[in-house]
């Protein structure tokens, strides 16, 4: 009976997966963050506000243009000194170039309208992420809880311990792939839970991070799974510099092009001093006793 209920649950998820996901994943944000501190430059008419709005508009449009030719990743900067703004945009590494372009184009519009030119603005979609700030955050790990997205599926699986074990193995394998040199910060894995149900996991970091920094970010994300996800059939933790997600249906895709799978990260190898951290070397992540 338990296996039957799980099979019905999987069937429901697969039916949902057949909907036009590309449209939903590139059109509707799953979360956004607009800083409450600092100025809101959308409602001011001072010369400073005009300059800053111009910088933000340049950054978001530049990110879209650069990502189109940069395999779904881009950084940008505009302005000088106090008026400088920095930006980052990245698509999930497994989505097609067309879906990536559509997602970032929508993000560029929505991030400005949602946040009205606040100093620190971020927006998450299923397929992409965009951020701008007047602080140079590039290359830094960001795991702020108040600027993150947590999504959990219900109901709980019938055998919580067994499911969490399978999900932990899948997530551990995906994380290990993501932090490996030459991975572009992307990892995907599949683990069998029952003869009828598999767990699919994806882990990804923004490409401005070194492998050790990627490991640090993903370790923080996975450490939240016990409390945030329990034995839910799906869950994702999205920070501004990494994302971790698992589901009981195949939500990720083959890489669209070889180039997106082989971004050269050898420039980071000099920073690689030790990979002995359990968050990096374990093949299974556990979040329950």
TrEMBL record:
PROSITE patterns: GNK2 (PS51473). It is found in: Secreted. It comes from Oryza meridionalis. It comes from the Eukaryota. Its main location: secreted. Residues 34-137, 145-251 form the Gnk2-homologous domain. One of its GO terms (cellular component) is extracellular region. Keywords: Repeat, Secreted, Signal. The keyword Heme does not apply. CDD domains: Gnk2-like (cd23509). Residues 1-24 form the signal peptide. This is Gnk2-homologous domain-containing protein. Belongs to the cysteine-rich repeat secretory protein family. It holds the Pfam family Stress-antifung.
